[in-house]
Structure formats: structure tokens, C-alpha cells
Structures
1.
Amino acid sequence: LLQPKLRLADGHTMPQLGFGVYKLANQATMNTAIAAANRSGYHLFDTAQAYGNEAILGTAFKELAIPRTELFITTKVAEVNQGYDNTLRSVERSLKLLQTDYLDLLLVHWPIHSQFFETWRAFERLKAEKIVRSIGVSNYHQTHLDYLATRANEQPVVNQIENHPYLSQEPLLAYDRKQQIVSQAWSPLGRGVVLQDPVLAKIASQHQRSVAQIILRWHIQRGLAIIPKSQNPQRISENAAIFDFKLDADEMTAIARLNRRQRTGADPEVVYEIE
Ligand code: NAD
């Protein structure tokens, strides 16, 4: 099945569905997961310097002989690597670990107030040098985006944020849209917490689909990019089988009503500072 792509403001395209590799920590587990994802039609793989698994991800791509042109690789600059020189050095290291000479998408992992403009200047340089095709941010709120909007030469084309039925963040999504930024949902399944919800269970049984598929389909119909994670080949394939059914307007509304501003991760309003 052909996977949909989203057009980014810089002219590149990005698969709407991707695979997150957070916590995949050894080579055998990584290989099994990436092989399953590759078979199921995922092209986008989302890692981060902070996950400590760029090397095993790079090795998995090589061992499975997946052509680079079929891959869309995202990594993120860790908090400890922010700043102009640190960013450049750390991206060089990420490229080595991932065994590639370019990245499809590079994200600032978290907005560290004292550092993020210098980090962003390094991102602009990496893009100009074509080491990175697209540049974006993660966990940015409107205030952080506004800062870049008024000062930066290049604008982020992706904002990767926590998003699931218990944290739908509609105002931030609207702001991203206004700025021509694609919103990409991390923890799209709420790390499992949302899967027990009775409203979702009812919709799932009506469609004879799993709750995970209903949630992922809801994201797709809202135009978000998603990067669900699983180690289980059957679930990896299930999470990609979401392009052959539709939720109706009432179902979309019922899911939207589940929002309770419940985070699984940290709140970006907390100012991150390096010690
Ligand atoms: P997720 O919402 O994708 O949930 C993953 C968990 O849900 C799995 O561990 C599994 O237990 C369960 N699951 C997955 N598929 C299932 C299915 N079909 N049926 C039942 N249970 C299922 O949460 P996540 O791993 O936190 O997020 C996904 C990715 O987002 C990460 O791997 C990472 O790449 C990215 N991420 C980014 C940030 C950031 O700050 N930018 C933060 C967290 C995660």
C-alpha cells in the first residue's frame, strides 16, 4: 500500500507515517523491529542523539541492505549538544553512527532558552551545506516558534510534539499550520495509556480494528505526521495498516472530546538549562 507523504514548506516531502526507535537498545531487537517496519512499508525512522541507538540503527539499515534512497532518517540534537560548535560536532558524529552522509530531517530536541538560537544558526548552516535536507524543532511552543519567526533566516518545517487523544494540543497545531509547519506527533498512542479508553474501544469494535489503529487513523485524518513505536512485528505491521478505512465526523469529534491535557512526558514550558 502506498504511504501518504506530506509536503514541507522547504519543498521536500516527508512520509506521514514513521517509526520511532526510542528505547530500542540492542542490535538484535533493533534489527527485528527495522526488518518488520521495512516489510510493513515504513520509510521514516525517528531517532535522537539522546536515545543512544543511532549506531545500532545505522547497522540495522546496512545489515538489512535497505537502499538509502528508500529511507527518511530523522535525528535530534540533544540538550547537552546544543550551541553552535557543539551542534556541528554532534551532527558529524550522528552521521558517522548512522553510516550516512546526509540526514533527511534534523530536529532541535528541546527548546533550551539560552542555547536555541545558536543551535538554530548551526542548523541553517547544515542545511545550506546540504548535510541536512530539512530542519525543524521538537517540543516548541508558540513563544519558542515566535522567537525564530522574528529572528531566523530559515524557519522550521516540522515541530515534533507530544500528541494523542488525551493531549490533542489543538491551539498549538493551529499555530503550526499558520506558520506552515508540519506537526509530527510523538507518543501518538500516549505510550499505551490511551489504549484502555472505553470510547476508543467502542469505535474500534465498530470498525473491527484495534484501538491503536483508531488513534493513528485519527491523527492521519487531522493531517498530523506520526511516529508510533513498538518492538513487536505484529503490532508494527498493524500500526501501518491504517490507510484502508476512515473515521466519520462524529467519531473524529468523539475522540477530540477525550482531551484532558494529560502529558506522558515533560512540559516544554519548563526551561531547560545546561548545568
Ligand atoms: P507511543 O505512543 O508510540 O507508544 C509506544 C508504546 O505503545 C509501545 O511501547 C507499546 O507498548 C504500545 N503499542 C504500540 N503499538 C501498539 C499496538 N498496536 N497495540 C498495543 N500497544 C501498542 O510512544 P513513544 O514510544 O513514547 O513515542 C513514539 C516515538 O516518538 C518514540 O519512539 C520516539 O521516536 C518519539 N519520541 C520523541 C520525543 C521528543 O521529545 N521529541 C519524546 C518521546 C518520544
2.
Amino acid sequence: MGKALIIGCGGVAGVAIHKCCQNSEAFEEILIASRTKSKCDKLKEELEGKTKTIIHTAQVDADNVDELVTLINGFKPDVVLNLALPYQDLTIMDACLATKTNYVDTANYEPLDTAKFEYKWQWEYRERFEEAGITALLGSGFDPGVTGVFSAYALKHEFDEINYIDILDCNGGDHGYPFATNFNPEINIREVSANGSYWENGQWVETKPMEIKREYDFEGVGKKDMYLLHHEELESLGINIPGIKRIRFFMTFGQSYITHLKCLENVGMTSIEPIEFEGKQIVPLQFLKAVLPDPASLGPRTVGKTNIGCIFQGKKDGKDKTYYLYNICDHQECYKEVGSQAISYTTGVPAMIGAMLIMDKTWNKPGVFNIEEFDPDPFMEALNKWGLPWQEDFNPTLVD
Ligand code: NDP
């Protein structure tokens, strides 16, 4: 039973807010605060009368610590759920420290001017959060998020030692556009146009963007090409899973997406270097974001399924063992339930669950933690209850 301040009101926040309202026993009262207040008001209007959760809205610039502190002091939430963009992580963490409030997010900090995301900036807050007696839960989406919970669960229940993890993120959805991104285009394109990398024997092995390609037959989706990407949970899992020798992350992309992205890259549209245009400085990638379809608008048009999970290889009772934990989610089912496609859904549900477990003190230790550092069992139970049931395969096809 508690109060949550939710910052941001985009695709992921929309789902998390629907889910908080379904779970009004835990979320008695929420305050939705974002840059554009009209979006918060629209959602409030849509949900009020259908939920027992009391909903408030506010305008906030989450880049401004003072504004955030005033907002938090006025509402006194038990937890702040950051569903704005990775650029706002540190200002929101500063405001949480100043007000001694718990913090949850779904993506690690990334400076606006360098396309490089790393945990180091947020891990630097560890001592200060511990001294303040508050918890920061980092990466409570699907990947990162559920992938870390799956890893902790596999280690707790299925293995004595995990040596290899392959995270496979498959989106078999079709939105009918030649090119669109399923979540914030700027964040998405920065991620996929960066060099790939994986963690092996205690160090990073770097690849060119999209250099490593594999085909995999996904249950519920079928055969898809997938590409090795750098992904943020590799960094924390490499440290938090003892005995790990290699972790890789693969994401599926269709040929049309790759061809368009290559072309946009070749003409300079994915650059984050500001350029002069009609007497004004603009960032090409931000301009591109403005002309692409809003991910929130893809919901009604997207059909098909996602299949995201982790294949583990390791040892149990002295014997080799493989184990695959995954979730299949249907775009249209998500749309029917909360008016959004599966990418936002698979992120918004774990965001709600993470906030709930911090709020009700099921997960209660002061400091800054990645999700795999907590007991996975209550989270796994909640995934089944709140719309992301997981499946197991004890004899999966491995990725070479
Ligand atoms: P959207 O762009 O749809 O939403 C972002 C929201 O944040 C918008 O409402 C935006 O306001 C608001 N916002 C941006 N800047 C500020 C600011 N300075 N002050 C206040 N509000 C601000 O993004 P998504 O919902 O797709 O993504 C949200 C987060 O989830 C991102 O960090 C993304 O990286 C992460 N994510 C994580 C995944 C995972 O599995 N872990 C998967 C997908 C996403 P406005 O409406 O005015 O633009």
C-alpha cells in the first residue's frame, strides 16, 4: 500500500500506469509528472472511474533537480519510478537523495552528447544511497530487467554455476510501416548503430555494428535473423553472476529495418553532432525522431508476437545443463488490454512490479542495485500474475 511518483508519460509509462491502476491495492495513489502535462491529464481521464487508484498529474522538467525536489516534497511518494529518458537518470537520483526517496528506472544513464551508456555514473551513487537509507533499483524493464531476474532465478533454482548466457530479444511484430522504431527512436537508433560487444572471460570483445548475425527459430514467431548488440545488462550480469565465462545479447531485425537504417546512417541522419540549419542548431537524430511515427501510435497497427528470454549453460550436480527461460507476448493482446504494443508492455509491466516490490519493502536494502542482486522469486511470481507469464525449456537449441 503506497504512493508512487511516475516521471514521464510516453509509451512505457502509459503501460506502467495502466498496470499500477489495475494493482490499486499496492498503488493507492500515483502522481504522473512529465514534460507535457496534457499527456498525463489525458491518461488520467482515461483511467479515472475504472480504478481505485487516486491519480494526480503535474508538469515537471526532470532535468531540473530543484523542480523535482519540490514535486517530491509536495507529494511524498514511497517510490519514484523514472520512465522519462536515460538522460534524466542522474537528476532524478539527485532529487531522490535530497528527499530520501526510493528510486526505480528501466534504462541506465546516457549523457546526451555521447552515445555511450554505462552503469558507472549510477553506481557512483551507491554509498550516498546507502547512507541515506534508500534503495535505487536499476533496470526494471524487460531487457534490462526481466533478463536479470531470469538470470538470478536460474542461478538460484537450476544451476550450481552458470557459464554462458545468451539473451535473445525477438520482436516478430509487424506495424506495416517500412521504417519505425518500437520505442523512443532516438534511444533505439543510438543503441543499434553503436558498435556491438559481448563479455568474455572478464573482458569486452568489441564488434562492428551488426557484424555478428545468427538465425534462430523462436517459439510463437518462427525463424528470424538476429544481430549481436551491446546491451546494458551485460555489464552488471558479468559482475553479478559468479562463474560466468561469456554473455551475449542478440536482437532480431527485419531486412527493411536494416536497409533503412543503413541509408539513414549513410546520409548522416542518425548523427548526434549538432548541425547548423536555417540559422539554428539542430541534431539530425532528434530531427529524424520528429518525422518518424510516434512509437505510442504503433499499438493499433502492430500484429504478431515478441519472444524474449535467456539461454543458460552451466553445471548442476557436476553435470552440464542447458536451460531457456522466456516470455511470449502478443502485440494485439497488449493493445486490447492497455492500448499499447508489446514492446512498451514488456517494459511497463516489470517497471510496475519493480516499483511495487520496492514500495512494499519485499525488496528492502539501502544502496544502488541491479535487479539480479535481489531475490528473484517474488518478481517471477508477479510476472505470471501481471501479464508476462514465463516458459521454460530444458533442451533448447543453442546459438553457436
Ligand atoms: P518515450 O519517448 O515514449 O517517453 C519518454 C517520456 O519522458 C515522454 O513522456 C517525455 O515527455 C518524457 N520526458 C522526456 N524528457 C523529459 C524531461 N526532461 N522532463 C520530464 N519528462 C521528460 O519513451 P519510452 O516510453 O519508449 O521509454 C521510456 C524509457 O524506457 C526510456 O528510458 C527507455 O530507454 C526505456 N526502455 C527500457 C526498456 C527495457 O526493456 N529496459 C525497453 C524500452 C524502453 P514528452 O511527452 O514531452 O516528450
3.
Amino acid sequence: MEVTINNIRKEFDRFPALNDVSLKIASGELIALLGPSGSGKTTLLRLIAGLDYPTAGKIFFGEEDASHRTVQERNVGFVFQHYALFRHMTVADNIGFGLKVRPSGTRPAKEEIRRRVSELLDMVHLSGLEKRYPNQLSGGQRQRVALARAMAIEPRILLLDEPFGALDAKVRKELRRWLREFHDRTGHTTVFVTHDQEEALELADRVVVMSQGRIEQVGSADDVYDRPGSPFVFSFIGESSQLPVEVKDGALLFQGHPIGISEPGDGVGDLFFRPEDVSLSDEQEALFGKVTACRRLAGTRIAEIDIANEGHAPYHVEIEVPLHAPVELGSEARFRPTRWKVFRK
Ligand code: ATP
């Protein structure tokens, strides 16, 4: 099911939790809503679900205007961070619940429900555990039961709000891989909320980066990581450093001096680069500063550099250096970004 979100605004006591949000989600797509706390991710998910209604704007499911439809009418499945399984029901009863409470006429026969539950158990790799109660399951297993329960009603769209947030790192990783496979097998349009960028980049077809109730950028993992469209996206996703610069006659100047980088145009702006996109340099035209800390990573090192800023606190940047490069604590390091982006003011 394709979902189209048109110019949505959502206010709580006049506070705009969402401000002019538009997004087209293709049928069968796996979409991540990624952003810091308070950026509006959950609010957007709740509006798609029909748990809340927009102050302005419209939401379409396919061609149908669903903006004022109820949750039931929208037929969406959702799973929250804190799996709300019924504790007094077995796994099988939890999964079949949504079907059993359907009004008579639309309720499948008992035998049909049993068949569907068994199919779903198989799909979430929990066959054999149907008679267990939630407290006899691990956190990851409970979350898979919650997913199976959401899927039982054959939803048009699957909505997940930090579904793995409460689990430990290893289980999270396993469930991530599992969810991707599950999605590829079932082909449901799926929207999930996360503030974990690794999760978003690894799992999603497209990542929607949100900040302060707005969409900053929508794109593939490569788009948002390699081609961030705004200073916010550049600094929110991955590691980066930032320096104020001037562009003059096709060259980049920092503190009035060329640093060996060409950049078209003229004006002032901020230079952004990632630690891995830097090379050490002996050239006169380069950035330089004092190494204040060094950390060993698996195959390389990260050096923290303070660049003097007369009369003010130094600029702090981080660069990745080869293990045996002569970059020592307290020494001076000279380097140039090899990939960068200048956002003009
Ligand atoms: P988190 O990652 O912390 O869950 P989020 O990105 O999901 O954050 P939302 O929960 O969508 O953010 O909240 C967006 C903004 O709207 C926040 O400033 C929040 O305080 C506000 N907000 C959300 N729900 C309500 C509500 N029911 N009443 C008043 N303000 C609300």
C-alpha cells in the first residue's frame, strides 16, 4: 500500500510537533524515521496509524483519503518498544487475538484462525512455542510474537515504534537482520521509528531524517551518509568536524589562509568533513593543530586535534590516521580533507 503524506502539521497546545511534513512512501518500502528525541518521529507514526489526527494536511492510503479514518478502518498493524503482549494468554492466543475480536461476519472460523496462527509462528521462527506464556520467552522472542500479532490482521501497513529499543545490543542486531528478511518475504509497506542511526542505515530502503518537527532529508543510507543535504544531517549522521571558512577566488580559506582545497564561488560558510576523509599533509597550505588525544580503533587510530583560535576556545576536530603515522600526543598534525562539503551561510 502506497502512503502519501501531504503538508502535515500537528500542534499540541499550539506547539508544532510537526510542521509541513510531506512524504511519499512506496508500496512495499521499508522506511526508517530517524531523528533526535522530540523531533516528531512518534507523532508522525501515530498520525499514519490513526491514533491521532493532524491539525492540517492529509494522509492518503493509495488513492483513499485516510486522514480522518479510525485505526480499525485503516487496518494498520503496529508494534511498540514495550511489547504489550497479554500476559495471561499463550503465544498462540496473543497472535490470534486480533482475528478473534473481529465482529462476527468478518471473523474467520476457529480452524482458519488456528491455521493462520501456525503460519505466522513459522514465519517468525517460533514454531513449537505456541503454548508458552510471555514470561516464558526472551525479550527478542516476545518482540517477534508482537510482530506476528500485528501481522495476523493482514495489515495494509506495518508501523513499528522503536521495536527493539528495550533489547540488548546483540539481540537487537539479530532482530534487525531478521526483520529485514521478514520484510523481504512479506513485502509489507513498513515504517519504523528509531533514534539509532546504525539501525536505520542498515535496515531501511530509505531513511527519513527528522529534526524539530520537519523532514531534513529523505534518501538511501548512501545518500544521507555520503551526500548529507544540510549541516544538521551531516553532523547528526556519523562523525564529523566543522570549521568556519571563507571561499575566495575558487579556494577555501580558514582563518584567512588557504588550506589547499578548491571550492567554487565566493562567500562564507561552514566546512564539514568526516574523520576518515582526511589525509596527513606536509604542504604549507593545510589545516594544523595540536594532538590532544589518540584512540586506537580496530585497524586505525582517531586523533583529536585542537586548532588554535586566537582569544577564543580552540576548534576541536577529529581525524583518522594510519596506525604507524607519526601523530603523537602533544605534537602538531597537518592534514587536509580529501572529501568535504561547504554549507554557505
Ligand atoms: P523520542 O525519540 O523521544 O520518542 P520523537 O521524535 O518521537 O521523540 P515525538 O514524541 O513525536 O518525538 O514528540 C515531538 C514533540 O511533540 C515533542 O516536543 C513532544 O514533547 C511533543 N508532544 C508529543 N506528544 C505530545 C502530547 N500528547 N502533548 C503535548 N506535546 C506532545
4.
Amino acid sequence: AVNRKFHPEDTIIEVAGRKIGAGYFNVMAGPCSVENEAQIVECAERVKAAGASFLRGGAFKPRTSPYSFQGLEAEGLKLLLEAKRQTGLPIVTEIMSEKHLDLFADVDIIQLGARNMQNFMLLKELGRSNKPILLKRGLSATMEEFLMAAEYIFAGGNTNVILCERGIRTFEKLIRNNLDISAVPLVKMFSHLPIIIDPSHAAGRRDMVQPLSRAAIAAGADGLIIEAHNDPAHALCDGAQSLDLNQFDTVMKDIKRRAEFE
Ligand code: PEP
Ligand code: MN
């Protein structure tokens, strides 16, 4: 069970030679979407050099409008694997349908996005797999709903779950979502699972990424997932919240001064 009552110690998720949780802090970084080989490889090289330990990048994108860029899909996964081959960075990428599980065989961490947090069939399928899952909190999910979504994955036998707080909907319009920093201590009280923070989707603006990363570290988060792009002004998705690669380097230096890395 995800409940700490049944498992008093913090869980450490081991993936691709990295540890996540119980004080092992990791930064996952990369563009919102994989766009082409040069883009994803440059992002991978630069976020790795800055100190990130995982490459993120969406291939299947859950977009509000059906007319927006939907991701490169299977081709995007291939490009991510190519970036992994060239840099050695393990990859994290979102799945949108259980029908695609075979395509994700070489993905290191499968992301279950906020919009699918209560896609119970998908949760059950991921529960039957043995892949580490990055489970993002739904746009207006309560903590109970969030932890019960993780419980679905556990119920199928897969206990490799990392939680991610990515902001919740509030009335505030200056930011895209509102980072619920309480999620970190609440998860730590009620569960043994690691929780990381996504300051990029929480704020929707790049100038908030550093302050929210500091807040995440102060609250005791186990890591961060940050959007960084080689050319944010021309990004096909989420450019306004993406750091450019120099800005990512600067933010990483600040994070490294504040968080305890392995
Ligand atoms: C993403 O990581 O690009 C994403 C779509 O995140 P979320 O599901 O948190 O909105
Ligand atoms: Mn995004």
C-alpha cells in the first residue's frame, strides 16, 4: 500500500543506476515536446552538463486543442532513445494510452500526466507493468484522489511510483496553476513514496521556475522536473514556461547550492 502506516520508511526508487527518494534528489529536465533530433540531442547534452540526471520530453502530448501540435508520437520516442544513446541520460516521457505500452519498453520512467491521473484503465495497466511511473497530480485532485491513483498502480503489483505535484487550478490568473507546496509534507505524512515538484507547469512562466524550485527544496521534495528548450520562443509547446539552456544552467547552479545531491 502507498500508506505510510504499512511502510514506515521512505521508499527509494532505483532506476537506471539512480536513486530517487529518502534524500536522494534528482532533477529531470528537457523540452515539453520532442520536436526533432537536433533539438532533443542539444537539450539532452546541455541539461546533462548542467547536472540533470534524467531527460524529459513529450512524444504523446495531451493538448487542450485538437488542432495544436500533438507530439511526434512513436517517432518522438525514437528520437528520445537516440538522445539517450548519445548522452547516457535515462528518459522520462508521457503515455496516453495502454495500447502504446509496447512502444515504451525502453523508456526508463513512464509519466502519467495530470489529465490521466484518474484514467483507471491506464492506471491498472501500468500497475501490471514493472516500469517506474511518474504519476502527476490531477488538475484539481485532492490528496486522497492523488494517493488513491498511486494505490491503483500498487494494487496491480507495481510499487515503483514517484509522485509529482505540478500545481492545481485556482482563481489566480497571473500563473497557469498554483503550486500546492502542502502536497510535499502531506505526501510525506501519509505516504512513503517520493514526491518531486514540477515548477514549470505549476507556474506556466519561466520567471517563476527558480523561486518555486527553491520552495520545493525547502519543503523537502525529492526532486524537480523542469522544462528547458534550446529555443523557447519557437517551442511547439509550453514555450512561455520553458527556460532556455543558459537559464537552465543558472537555475541548476542555484539548485545545486540548496539541495543535497547524492
Ligand atoms: C508535461 O509534462 O508536459 C505535461 C503535459 O504535464 P501535466 O500532465 O502536469 O500537465
Ligand atoms: Mn509541458
